What we know:
Layout: H1 2-38, E1 44-48, E2 60-65, E3 69-78, E4 83-89, E5 92-97, E6 107-115, E7 120-127, H2 139-150, E8 164-165, E9 169-174, E10 181-186, H3 190-193, H4 197-213, E11 221-223, E12 228-229
Parallel strand pairs: 10-11
Antiparallel strand pairs: 1-2, 2-5, 3-6, 4-5, 6-7, 8-9, 9-10, 11-12
Amino acid sequence: MFPQTNQSLSVALHNRKFLFVLGITIVLIMAIVLWLFSRQTFDVVSINPNPSSINTLTPTIDVSYNQPLRSSRLAVSGSKGLIYKSVVKNRMLSLQLATPLKASKNYFINISVTSQSSATSTTTINFKPIYVTWSQISQNQQNQILSIQSSLEPSLSGLSYLPYEGTDYQLTISNSTSPPSIDFTYVPSYWDTTQGNSAENAAINNAKQWLSQHNLSSYQLINSATNQPI
């Protein structure tokens, strides 16, 4: 009877050792997997909209990453007056642009950001906006622009009338200045193109009249084509 008892005790001890070793092995494997996961390449997953699709009225660029971001370790720079505001939303960096942008002008954005796991990613976005009018952009983009405008301080609430599209011109807020100015974009019809500068001057006068009617004459009017005051 004693030999059987010793044998059972030996089997029990062997099983305990096996379970102990198995447990240690599982813990080590999990630790290695977690370490490898934390060390994965921290990089951009997507840029929305695609840089080649950015237009002159694109309100935001959303840059998504494969890891949560650390908002305290963020550096964003770019073309002068391009970035109005940057917001970190977990794994996304949302860049609000100071629209309208200049058609066919070369813009760039440099982003350096750190993840929660202390990995660093540096990205450069280059793009050349496509010219569009207010009626050509999506309802979502229109809503985004109006939302950004409504977030301005109450003293600027008169700008809620903008953007506005006349028959041969477009007026939009330019947040690249403080206080904001109003950008005038001439949109000639076929008939206007045959009339030279007189048609553009008429469009400017119509725009100024509209601004006066909506108590916006105090804002500086900028020609978006030349970036000069009108």
